[in-house]
Design a protein that fits this description.
Helix content is 33%, strand content 10%. Helix 2 runs parallel beside helix 4 and helix 2 runs antiparallel to helix 5. Keywords: Iron, Oxidoreductase.
Length: 419
C-alpha cells in the first residue's frame, strides 16, 4: 500500500501533467490567428483573444503564485490592473469594454507572461500540495477551461464582424448531415428528489450544496430543437407575434431587430461558423439563441423550457459522468443519431432552462476574492445546463450550472423542450 507521502507525490505529478495539458490547449486554440485577430473586441461582453490568454495567467499569478511561492517575482506590476476581470476585492481593473484598446502588451509579451507563470506553476506543483492549495490549482485549471470556450465564442464574433468572414479552421471534408430521431417526450421522476454536487471531485461552489427538490409530473424532449424546426418557427411568423414573447424579450427583439438566430443569413440558408460561412444543416441543433428566443419557440411549439432540476435528473439517469466532452476541433453542433433515449445532453449546445440563477439552499460563497467567482452574479441571469461543442473535454458535469443574461446569444446555446 502506498504511503501518504507517495500518494501526495503521485497526485502532484498528475496535477502537473494536467496543468500542462490545459495551458497548452489554450495556445493550440489560437493557431491560425494573427496578432491583429487577437487584438479586436467587437462587443463589451466579448473579450479579445489576447486578453483571455493573459487573464487566465493572471488568475494563477494573483491567487496562487504570489501567495504560495516565496520570492515569486511578478512578470509586470501593471498586469494586476490590466488583467483583473471582476475581482473587486483583489484591486482595481481596466474597464471591460475597453480591453480591445490595449495594443500593448503585444501578443509576444502575453505569451512570455504565460511562460513565466507556467514555469513558476510547474515548480510549485513539483512538491506535495496542501488540500486547500490543490483545490485552488484545480479551480484555476477549470477557470482556464471556461475561458477556452469563451475564447472561441468571442473570436467567432470577431471573425463574423469582418466582411471577409474569415475562418478560424477550415474543414477537410464536408459534414455528413444525419437526421435526428423523431421528437419524443420522455417521463421524468416525480416527487422529492436530490440535485446538486456531492463528493470529493471538483465542482464550482455554485453546484452545491446537494439538496432536496420537489418535482411535479413532467416530460423532457429526447433531443434538441433542430435548425429545420426553428426555421419553421421563423417562417410561421414567430418573430412577429408578440403573444409568444416575454415583454422584455419582445422589446429587445424590436430594438435589436432580431429576426433569426445570430449568424444566420436573411435567406435562412447559411450561417457563419468557425469554419467560415456554411450551409445550414437542417438536422443540427439550432444554436446562438437567447433565452427570450428559446422561450418564445417553446411557447410556439406548445411546450415550455425545463427547469434545471428536471434537466439534471434526466441527465443523471441517462449518462455516466465520464466521456461527456466532444472536443473535436470543429466547434459546431452536429446532427443526431438513431439511438433511443435522451440525446444531446452534452457536447452540442448549452440548453436554456426556465430556472433563474440563484443560490441553492445553504449556499455560502468562499471567503475572500475567490468568493466573487460565482455568488455575486446570482441575479437577473438564467441557468443553462449541459455543455457545448466548444466545451473542453473533461469540463462537463451533470451538476454544472452555467449562467448568462436572458439576452445573451453569442454562446452555443440551444433549446430542449419540456411538458
Amino acid at each position: 500500500m502506498p504511503t501518504t507521502a507517495a500518494r501526495a507525490t503521485v497526485d502532484s505529478c498528475e496535477l502537473s501533467e494536467r496543468a500542462h495539458r490545459v495551458r497548452q490547449r489554450s495556445l493550440a486554440l489560437i493557431r491560425g490567428l494573427s496578432a491583429e485577430d487577437m487584438q479586436v473586441q467587437v462587443a463589451e461582453h466579448a473579450s479579445p483573444t489576447k486578453w483571455h490568454l493573459a487573464h487566465t495567467s493572471w488568475f494563477f499569478e494573483r491567487f496562487i503564485l504570489t501567495q504560495e511561492t516565496p520570492g515569486y517575482r511578478v512578470f509586470h506590476a501593471d498586469f494586476d490592473y490590466l488583467f483583473n476581470s471582476y475581482y473587486v476585492t483583489a484591486g482595481s481593473m481596466h474597464p471591460r469594454g475597453q480591453r480591445g484598446f490595449l495594443s500593448r502588451p503585444g501578443i509576444d509579451d502575453v505569451l512570455a507572461y504565460r511562460q513565466h507563470v507556467d514555469d513558476a506553476l510547474q515548480d510549485l506543483l513539483a512538491s506535495p500540495l496542501t488540500p486547500a492549495l490543490r483545490q485552488l490549482v484545480e479551480l484555476g485549471l477549470h477557470h482556464e477551461q471556461q475561458h477556452q470556450e469563451l475564447l472561441l465564442t468571442d473570436i467567432k464574433q470577431v471573425l463574423a464582424a469582418n466582411p471577409l468572414e474569415p475562418a478560424l479552421r477550415t474543414r477537410n471534408a464536408p459534414r455528413v448531415s444525419t437526421p435526428p430521431p423523431a421528437l419524443a417526450f420522455l417521463d421524468g421522476p416525480e416527487g422529492v428528489c436530490e440535485i446538486g454536487h456531492a463528493g470529493d471531485a471538483f465542482a464550482f461552489d455554485n453546484e452545491g450544496p446537494r439538496h432536496r427538490v420537489f418535482l411535479h409530473s413532467h416530460r423532457l424532449a429526447n433531443r434538441l430543437v433542430t435548425n429545420a424546426e426553428y426555421r419553421d418557427f421563423i417562417r410561421d411568423g414567430g418573430y412577429d407575434d408578440p403573444a409568444l414573447w416575454l415583454s422584455d424579450g419582445w422589446a429587445l427583439k424590436c430594438d435589436a431587430g432580431w429576426q433569426r438566430p445570430l449568424y444566420w443569413d436573411s435567406l435562412l440558408e447559411t450561417e457563419f461558423t468557425l469554419a467560415g460561412r456554411q450551409p445550414i444543416d437542417p438536422h443540427a441543433p439550432a444554436t446562438h439563441l437567447s433565452f427570450y428566443e428559446a422561450d418564445a419557440y417553446a411557447r410556439w411549439a406548445g411546450a415550455r423550457l425545463p427547469t434545471e432540476a428536471e434537466w439534471e435528473l434526466a441527465a443523471a439517469a441517462s449518462l455516466p459522468e465520464s466521456g461527456l466532452g466532444l472536443d473535436t476541433g470543429d466547434w459546431h453542433p452536429t446532427g443526431g443519431d438513431d439511438s433511443t433515449g435522451m440525446q444531446q445532453l452534452f457536447g452540442q449546445c448549452w440548453q436554456w432552462t426556465a430556472s433563474a440563477y440563484s443560490p441553492y439552499p445553504g449556499y455560502r460563497p468562499p471567503a475572500g476574492a475567490i468568493g466573487e467567482y460565482n455568488g455575486k452574479f446570482m441575479c437577473n441571469q438564467m441557468v443553462l445546463r449541459g455543455s457545448s461543442c466548444a466545451t473542453p473535454d473533461g469540463h462537463a458535469r451533470t451538476t454544472y450550472r452555467n449562467f448568462f443574461y436572458p439576452s445573451d446569444r453569442w454562446q452555443f446555446s440551444g433549446i430542449r423542450l419540456a411538458h
